[in-house]
Amino acid sequence: MTGDTQRHGEAGPRGTPVGGRPAAGIPHQAPTPLGRLVATVERLRREVLEAQAAADGRALVELAKGILIGQLHCTPAAAARQLDVLCRDSGMSLLELAADIVNQASRDHVSAIAAEFVERTGTADVPAEEHTAVSVRLRTAESGMLAAAADTQAVAESLLTNALGPLGAVAVAVWTAVPDGSLALTGHAGFRPGEAARWRHVPPGVSTVARLALTERRLVTLAGQKREGLPSIGHLQWSDGGRMAVPTGTGGRIHGVLEICWPGPLAPQPPQIERQVEALADLCARTMDASPPRDLTAAEAVLPDVAELIDLAEGLQDPAVVLTPVLDPEGGLGDFRIRHVGSRFVDPLGRPRGDVNGALLLEAYPMAAGESGLFDIIERVHATGEPFRAERMSLTALVDQIPLTSVADISVSRHGAAVLLIWRIEDETARLANLLQHAQRLGRIGGFEENLATGETTWNAQLYALHGLPATAPPVRLHELPGYAHPDDSAALGGFLRAVLRHRRPASVNFRLQRPDGITRHIRVVAEPVLDAEQRLYAVRGAYQDISAQHWTEVALAATRDQLAHTEAESAERNRLALQLQHAIMPPTPPAIEAPGLRVAVRYRPAETESLVGGDWYDTVVLPSGLIMLSVGDVAGHGIEAATGMVVLRNALRGLAVTGAGPAQLLSWLNTVTHHLAKHVTATAVCGLFDPSTRVMRWARAGHLPPVLVRAGRADAFPLIDGLLLGALPDVTYVEREVRLEPDDTLLMFTDGLVERRDSSVQDSLRHLMNAAGAGSGELDGRLDRLLAESRSDTDDDTCVIGIQVG
């Protein structure tokens, strides 16, 4: 209320109360003219206040309707009927009921403020009707300030003070979407002085929080602006504050964006808060929409005057269509009405203009909602106001249920509440000429025609570029070509000219063109004679093509072939030497080794591909102490380096074993040799020392698979003990274990080429090997042959197997 409003019961002039009614105890007097005037003023004042209250509460009732629509999944009309039924059953006013529905649905800060206010004021001195209207006043405070605001700046200030401040927000910005794609700051509150001036205008294409909401056309919540990397107004003031941005619009049009700032990180907001913010954005949009108000429940929005737009469409040289939005019962955009079709309009279905004019867009052209996305483009332009233009866009129409596609240049722009759609169907002749021009440019081809009767020669623009001549220079005629070519190509050009001009048959030639700018290009000329009705030569047509890139590619390819052949020969020689070295030390089928107390057999299978010469090795030797050393190893890699590394490690281990050291010490010394004496070599190995007198075998491993013991038809792998591969670190300590072998036991030591597969784990492959070894019987040589034959390895690697049978 205004500050000069008198309360009921205060006396007016001459002791007459406001409204002209006599005060108690005063005799009835005839109403005076002044009393009638006072009564009229009071009545008008009450009507104005009632109208203001109704306007303040209208947004609150609409918000309650929206909550009922979301909860009951009903239409706006059904929600309104439900509100009437609830009012009648509860005996509450419409505003009181709407406030209760919103409070129960949101449970937000505004509800808490209402409860605190009631608790603080109490109910002793508050009339019942005033107590029940507390939540109404609080709810209408956030919407009434908007309804009473005169401009967008006042809206922003009112929003922050009355609605968003209780939610913890510290600043509000209202952006208007300008048709050129930019954003204009039309209202703000809570920011530092000067901040608004810096952000008064945001050019098109600049990514901001408001731009994100406008592009996605939905409410956007950012927990912290700094982590998202999107700048906006006040981003230095609250560097990691939360942001919420929601598009504001009516009738399917987006007028701008409401952006809300929090001082710190923003937790995920419940749907009730988001609905409240969206409702505030809708109220904010009413102050930004300059068009007259309309009933959003109507099937179609009230249309602005589109006469000027229709005149513009008629003045265009291209087909144009004027579209106006059609709203659904909920107030959203449902379709577009074809309000006018230009005089140059041609319907793909062959329908006259009158059949299309006035129809709905999706009814007349249902394929617009298909893959072309034309309807989505029109909808976005209508919503945001940003124009859309595209070249060579595919448009599809159904002709007798057959989709026909045409290519057109499209332009879509918004004018007021209407949309202007312009398209230019690509002419087939122009399209083919354009394709030919692009093909000539990409292929570096230039065409010519030489009229022998008139002496006139015609070149296209690409041919001038090939010759390095300006467009104003005279073309080079065919008989003048030898003067522009390399002297060594004169004979070839002479034969080409004789074939075309004298023998009148098509011909081609390659020559080196020496251009005026000093650049030499390799050119191919193709020409054919043109004969008249009497078979006389009157013109020559043809084309020049720059084949310099192809020529130098062929030269480089020939040099590469020579280099590759030389490299292949060197590689083959290196592999041959590596294979000879490998076979000299590791024969594929060595003879069986007879040692005291056991029999040793070895099978070695080189890689199937000679280019994969590997570093697998094995060794069995009787030491001076009477012990028998058994070892297998695998040097990483292939080729001559792996083969020479294998030789170094095998011979080093054999020499170290003479010292009488145990397997763990031998591997430790071998690791030192690998790390310091063999460059860039790593390897795995298993080393064992067997004592024939006690049948005890001491063994150690360096990153290798453990041996497999076959006893009484059962195969088991030795326990996996620690041991780092050779060459990884300079100083490594290895673990040693003992196993007592029994008569008729068979011990298998092997490299990973026997079990390794690309499609399964090593454990699965090792389990398959143990099953095969346990099922085998017979002589040791036959059993090793069967293991190699049943191996499932597919890595094309060397394979080495040592079989030790205890006597």
Automatic annotation (TrEMBL):
Against Pfam families, the record matches this protein to: ANTAR (PF03861), SpoIIE (PF07228)
Q: Which SMART domains match?
A: ANTAR (SM01012), PP2C_SIG (SM00331)
Hydrolase: present as a keyword of the record? yes
Q: Which Gene3D superfamilies is this protein grouped with?
A: 2.10.70.100, 3.30.450.40, PAS domain (3.30.450.20), PPM-type phosphatase domain (3.60.40.10), Winged helix-like DNA-binding domain superfamily/Winged helix DNA-binding domain (1.10.10.10)
Per the record, where are the segments of Basic and acidic residues compositional bias? 1-11
Q: MF terms per GO, please?
A: phosphatase activity; RNA binding
Where would I find the ANTAR domain in this sequence? 41-102
PROSITE patterns for the chain: ANTAR, PAC
Q: Does the keyword Transcription regulation apply?
A: yes
Q: Which residues form the PAC domain?
A: 507-559
- Chain segments carrying region Disordered: 1-32
So which domain of life are we looking at? Bacteria
Q: Keywords, A to Z?
A: Hydrolase, Transcription, Transcription regulation
Coiled-coil residue spans: none
Q: What is the name listed in the Swiss-Prot or TrEMBL entry for this protein?
A: Antitermination regulator
